[in-house]
């Protein structure tokens, strides 16, 4: 059993290292990712650093997938704001939040969990929120291998489980609250827990049978199910959480108010521009809408239950 467990862990490490091949085509070419660096997504120009817009995209999907999906979006943002755009990536949500804390990031596409933590610290502000399929909400999906016998969370007791990121709302906080309601802790409930650091990694790990279950962002699972279901079709959803406020676009409080307003206007009207609409369609985003802070109160409340396990037993996400 120990030998098998080590072999599954080794396979997982190899698999996650190769995940960038998931949806790349021959035309995409190789993309090298270095978490300590940034990459320009607009043509460099001989101008001052004051026109540089540093944009962080949290690792809700793997780095290669992030660059592949958001490259045209960020180029559009640069052209409409007349600024050079630099994509900044880090391995964890927490690292992105620390960049905001040091005023090293201007704009971020972040998970709702890190937004709640960042807003609490005063290091980021809501700018706009994507509307997807007519909704500003999303859920956590508890997934298992399609042909497995698992039907409920209780069936996963003593099995292996994948979290995405320590600060992921749907990838860690929600499933942790589910286990707390059963009167247990995840580290005791599951035989082994791994962190995959992106939702597509977790989907692939479940599809390949390298873990018995995972909780993933419904937006990511639904996107791949619609665009390329080779791995999602090998998984099965056995539980859906209550709806939560969708991951927002945020800005640094230190960003020039005029720049904030320009960014807000560009994003809120992007769906009215043919080029912008084509990019949004590719990302399965209807449009961007003005956010409301109360959309994230349920995220805040759930995070609070994790600080108070006794209270968490009564939560029902």
UniProtKB/TrEMBL annotation:
What's in the keyword line of the UniProt record? Signal
Q: Where is the signal peptide?
A: 1-27
Indicate yes or no for the key word Signal: yes
Instruction: Give the family, as the similarity comment puts it.
Output: Belongs to the phosphate/phosphite/phosphonate binding protein family.
Superkingdom in the source lineage: Bacteria
Q: Name one GO cellular component term.
A: ATP-binding cassette (ABC) transporter complex
Q: Which GO terms describe its biological process?
A: transmembrane transport
Which InterPro entries does its entry note? Answer: PhnD
> What is this protein's name?
Phosphonate transport system substrate-binding protein
**Keyword match Thylakoid:** no
PANTHER family per the UniProt record, alphabetical: PHOSPHONATES-BINDING PERIPLASMIC PROTEIN
